[in-house]
């Protein structure tokens, strides 16, 4: 048996008995008693609350509350879970209260040294993310359950920014958190096609008894991204766009969700993209404005001309406002 197998065997023997000695463990597992001591030390270092009683009736036992804990995590695993919980909480994870309870349990079952380390790592990481309100968290929970149970939902959905709502029946295939918003992706029975709906625009929701079958290998994430990223038309000639500038600014530009699929080549101080003219005219100049003088357009002339026009219009607008 491997070391891990022996340690798990010791753990289960401790869980199944009130108290057991190192000699009894060594006999049951057919290993040296010194090896038992080493494994006991390793389990303690991993956060298992083992109590060692000396004397005639002494031996090893587990702290009573640990019997409810089925898993053992080392320090790095505990740290990773707590950091992941911080991201989930800030993203409006629908089971935030249960997540907090799970983290509290994790801390309860660790030893004092690991608890001190965990608290240090927890204090050193913060996540800033717009949190969903309480009503949206309830909706997210209902949608998540409907997704898991393949149940149709009936919703009153607000279209756009008006007050008018529209009744929809949706077979929810998945939930996606995208750019600080939660979306439910599924088959809309009214339109008879797969669509995405913002959860914060759902004004009422009821789960039906009707079941559905989710398409095999369907990805809600891929569907949503396909809807927001520019479509690539192979019949349209793409225009070469070259941007030079500071390395950090180019890193940020190349990593933008709108541009990732258009990047052709990247050097330390230059990025080469290929994109449709429509994207260059409608979106790209306004994105480049946010980088100020940290980048410079090499080509095409069209993009340079657009940037000049946009900045002139901005200057004229604010210059006129200053005179009023």
SSE diagram, text form:
Blueprint (H helix, E strand, L loop, with lengths): L2 H14 L5 H8 L3 H13 L4 E4 L5 E4 L12 H16 L5 H13 L3 H12 L10 H16 L1 E8 L6 E14 L2 E8 L4 E6 L3 E10 L8 H9 L10 E7 L1 H8 L8 E4 L3 E6 L1 H6 L1 H6 L5 E5 L1 H23 L1
Antiparallel strand pairs: 1-2, 3-4, 3-7, 4-5, 5-6, 8-10, 8-11, 9-10
Report on this structure.
InterPro entries: CBASS_pafABC_assoc_protein (IPR051534), HTH_11 (IPR013196), WH-like_DNA-bd_sf (IPR036388), WH_DNA-bd_sf (IPR036390), WYL_dom (IPR026881). It holds the Pfam family HTH_11. 44% of the residues lie in helices and 23% in strands. It has 324 residues and is α+β, with helices and mostly antiparallel strands. It has four domains: 3-68, Arc Repressor Mutant, subunit A, CATH 1.10.10.10; 75-123; 134-228, SH3 type barrels, CATH 2.30.30; 239-320, Alpha-Beta Plaits, CATH 3.30.70. The protein has a five-stranded antiparallel beta sheet. A four-stranded antiparallel beta sheet has the order 9-10-8-11.
Which key phrases capture this entry?
single chain, 324 residues, alpha+beta, Arc Repressor Mutant, subunit A, 4 domains, 12 helices, elongated, DNA binding, WYL_dom, DNA-binding transcriptional regulator, WH_DNA-bd_sf
Summarize the structure.
This protein has 324 residues and is α+β, with helices and mostly antiparallel strands. The protein is built from twelve helices and eleven strands.
